[in-house]
Amino acid sequence: MKRETIIAAAMLVALSLLTAANFTYFARAYFLHLIPMLWVVWLVYRGVANDGLLTVRRLVTCLLVAGGAGAFLELYFKVYKRTPFDENGIITLFSVMILFAIGLYSFSIYQNRRGQRGFSLSDRCNIWLIMGVGFVFLAVDDFACLHEGLDKDIHKMLGIRPTAFTTHLDDLLIGLYGVIGIVVLRYFWREIASFRRFIRFLIVGFVFLFMSVLFDLASNGPEFFNWLLSGGPHVHEAYMIIGKMEELSKIVSEIFFLGGFYTVLQEIE
């Protein structure tokens, strides 16, 4: 079976499982979320097929359009648990699918770079295997909300009262993931350095990732906007807008990360 077929099948299985897990939410939109999601699967498939028909610019543009379509459906049909773009919605599904696709791309790159060599801990191409595992974990984390409520768990486990710092631990964890990623990339720099376009896409992705962390911290409560706007009438609006910007910035970062991995696939093929 061809590599692109295996990856497309894995994406379809993931889409089916995620749709079934949040069946009642997606039913609100008459399962129209499948249109942009199947488009994502097709784009990921074409990327691995690498037949020259899909440029990286087209890939990124089409993914942005698909994400925008998902956001519209989520808002129009109110496909969310409490507020737009929270868990169980179309944007969460989109994010999980993109993260999973990045993991699959990374595994594919690892297989290509390793070639016929056996596994070795000192092999510099292991960075692609590490990133593949990392992005699949992030997909699971995003779907299962593993990092959400971390602050409450720590308060309960240690028997301490919430503080201004500990209440933001779950927000900071995403930023910590990013820092760990940068450290690992630096360690394997000899393998990464030859892929210049990949590095440029990573930089843009990390910028949007850390922007999302800042938006998440700012939207953790209205206190910041009460201070910034001196308790004016637009505190609630500002708080809600920044909260949405957090999720949208994360989506954009993931799309650029996927675009970066696609450039590597183009170069090694």
Give a brief outline of the structure.
Helix content is 75%, strand content 0%.
Chart the SSEs and their pairings.
Blueprint lengths: L2 H19 L1 H5 L6 H16 L6 H22 L12 H25 L11 H19 L5 H9 L10 H19 L1 H4 L3 H23 L4 H6 L6 H34 L1
Helix pairs in contact: 1-3, 1-5, 3-4, 3-5, 4-12, 5-6, 5-12, 8-10, 10-12
Folded structure, characterized:
The structure is a single chain. The protein is mainly α and about 270 residues long. The chain has twelve helices and no strands. It has helices at about 5-20, 25, 35-50, 55-75, 90-115, 125-145, 150-160, 170-185, 190, 195-220, 225-230, 235-269. The longest helix is centred in the C-terminal third of the chain and has 34 residues, at about 235-269. Keywords: Membrane, Transmembrane, Transmembrane helix.
What brief labels describe this structure?
single chain, 269 residues, mainly alpha, 75% helix, transmembrane, transmembrane helix, membrane
